[in-house]
Amino acid sequence: MPENTREVSEFLKFCYEKNIYLTPRGGGTGLSGGAVPLKGGVISLEKMNRILDIDETNQYIVLEPGVITEDINKNLFDKKLFYPPDPASLDSCTIGGNVATNAGGPKAFKYGVTSNYLLQLECVFPDGRIELIGKRTRKWNTGFNLLKLLCGSEGLLGVFTKIILRTIPLPEKEILILLGFENTQNLLSFVEKIFKNKLFPSIIEFMDKDTVYLVKEKIRNFLSPESSLLFIGFDGNEKEVEYEMEKLYELIEKEKIENVFAGVDKKTINRIWDIRKKLFYETEKMGFKVYSEDAGIELKKAGEFIKETKKLFKIYSKIPYIFGHLGDGNIHINLSYKKDEEGIVKEISKKIWDIILKYEGTITAEHGVGFLKKEGFKKEISPYLYEVQKRIKNIFDPKGILNPGKMF
Questions:
Q1: I need a surface site. Which of 4, 86, 333, 361 has the fewest CB within 10 A?
Q2: pTM metric for this prediction
Q3: CATH number of domain containing 299
Q4: pLDDT tens string 125-140
């Protein structure tokens, strides 16, 4: 485990010269096998876990890659600053892993994903070369945007040793509303009306009725669990939040929705979010393992996509646990399965990819390609663009020592 950039550089240079395969590992958020070594060794960045600087004037934070994502806002809080990307695993994933997967989270609809806050990277390339990519300025336009290329590169192009992130002022107020619907189609219809009424939530999350069943005892503390569930969050200054809330409640009354709960204090909001964050672990209890898809679908096509997905699962006598980030169209489909059902899971997965592409979506909105979605990756993009990406990999890593067997 290296403890500084120099040690990372020396280790990578040694591996490059000896043709030793290496997988960077620092705790990402992807679920497609991106950080699982297929061969060779692992370079862990856990010991590089310091917050190096918080610049209040220019509003950025300088971090090492092993910093736990949740600790960023803990350190920014007293300075009234805020880093919005908040993946569900923020209490265990690291910022280096977040950059490698371009992580998002529930607030991505309003605030964007990791790449929207990334100002600069210190990166060690496979031959040990250390380079700074990007600037600490808010705007720069010198050449191709290599920073955006590296963000989300899944550990295939280089190892990040220093990360500079833009921060924003901390919102004064936050509120979270739970709404229960008879079914997911009614829920989706309501979300469309939110957009048409020009509301701008920070959070728009949902759980299909079968998914709510997994956490029904915890949901029961807030509202009836016999429903599909919608999470609507607002944040900002007092007046902004009050205005958005008034408009939302007007819509709730107009649509005659009665299954409603409002979390107005931090403790209650955290209790609600704890249910959402633990959802993956609740799914794990249903079988041997969980396979997770993360489709990106336009909202207007989401209803038909979900219907078709459920029909597919019915053929296999399986239950799809469907939930996700509706604001940005990121729909998760979790499948719990037994040890002897891995072949069936692969078959279902390939058919889900076909459905996603039929609706002009993406097979991975946030989990990445890794090795589990290599075949789907080739389906989604043209042969020309696939070859372009292979060439990019070869430019940065001509010996192919970083994260071998992934993506291509």
A1: 4
A2: 0.92
A3: 3.30.70.2740
A4: 999 999 999 999 999 9
